[in-house]
Specification:
about 70 residues, 4 helices, mainly alpha, about 0% strand, single chain
Length: about 70
């Protein structure tokens, strides 16, 4: 149910980076990392200057098991 509220908030305010940011964190908390990373990428696209979004995106990549090559 809680995720549906985030989905609704994103539908009502698609240009609000905070909504996508927190939706991404909520999705990650449920293990839905692909969707979480997509939401965080949208938040970062909307507000690239916000370091909190970039930090959470990096953390979710880490939790999802992604490791840089090389």
């Amino acid at each position: 149910r809680r995720l549906r509220l985030f989905d609704r908030a994103a539908a009502l305010a698609p240009a609000d980076a905070r909504t996508h940011h927190w939706r991404g964190n909520a999705l990650a908390a449920t293990g839905r990392f692909d969707e979480a990373l997509a939401a965080l990428a949208e938040a970062r696209r909307l507000r690239p200057e916000l370091s909190a979004i970039a930090a959470d995106e990096a953390w979710q990549y880490f939790l999802a098991g992604w490791r840089p090559q090389g």
